[in-house]
Amino acid sequence: MELDQFQQDNLANWNDRVAVHAQSDGYGLQRYAADPNHISSVVAFDRPLMGDIAGLRVAHLQCHIGTDTISLARLGATVSGLDFSPKAIDVARGLAKSSGTPASFVVGNVYDAPAVFGATFDFVYTGVGAINWLADLDRWAAAVAGLLESGGRLYLREAHPQLWVFEEVNGQVVPTYDYFTPPDQPFTEDDQSTYTDGDTSTIVNTVTHDWNHSLPEVLNALVGSGMTVDRMEEHEGVDWKFVPSAVREGDQWFLPGDLRRQVPGMFSLWATKK
Ligand SMILES: C[S@@+](CC[C@H](N)C(=O)[O-])C[C@H]1O[C@@H](n2cnc3c(N)ncnc32)[C@H](O)[C@@H]1O
Fold this sequence. Notes:
Elements: H1 5-23, H2 30-34, H3 41-50, E1 57-61, H4 67-73, E2 78-83, H5 86-99, E3 104-107, H6 113-117, E4 121-127, H7 137-147, E5 148-159, H8 161-164, E6 166-169, E7 172-175, E8 187-190, E9 207-210, H9 215-224, E10 227-235, E11 247-249, E12 252-254, H10 259-262, E13 266-273
Parallel strand pairs: 1-2, 1-4, 2-3, 4-5
Antiparallel strand pairs: 5-13, 6-7, 8-9, 10-13, 11-12
The structure holds S-adenosylmethionine.
S-adenosylmethionine is lined by residues 7, 10, 14, 42, 62, 64, 67-68, 83-85, 88, 109-110, 128-130, 133-134.
């Protein structure tokens, strides 16, 4: 796997996060073995939005430890997950076994997904903290288009680029970060924490780099790769506690006070390969 320095740092960090996430209540791996009908809150949110995937061949990009992959399989799809973290893929394969839900997994850079899978698909599912780890959305979109059969569909749900600008500073959620992040100027952070519960002392590779991608950047990358963007929607909520004062309702978190109606939390995008 060929990785630049930003990706090497990110991979080391994601490998370290796997053990913490696999033990966390948030990812709740044991729930999949305990209940054969259990699906992740992420896929439960997307289920009515993405349409019926039963019987489809689905590629799940940046699948992490496989909870959403298994959930997609439980909706009747034949699912293959891809992630560049071998440790995440080990846990995902274990989850498929322990949960009794068939799914296959490959290790690879998302930019190389068509070659790594060596197969084409009817549907690509990705998001919820995925594309922010990629510097080059044109390469990502080319990989998505390369995975799909003609008429195949992409469903993406991601944090909204406007939301990424905000941070909580002294109890106030305020614009803090750049909206525009060129490929050579990522957000570089040195942080031992992660977004789940649990002891993070085993996270020793603490430096990460990620990027904010505007909606036109996402759209233009997909159009440039030969996809038709069919529809987009914005959502108020987010799947994780993105600032300390975020307000929880069910499985989603919202900006506090008036900000909830002023700043979108996430967006969904539907696209079709021509
Ligand atoms: C937030 S997680 C995945 C989100 C997923 N919704 C979840 O929570 O299970 C981001 C994933 O992207 C993977 N990743 C980051 N950069 C990648 C790359 N260039 N190629 C493949 N996977 C990558 C990481 O290893 C990590 O598992």
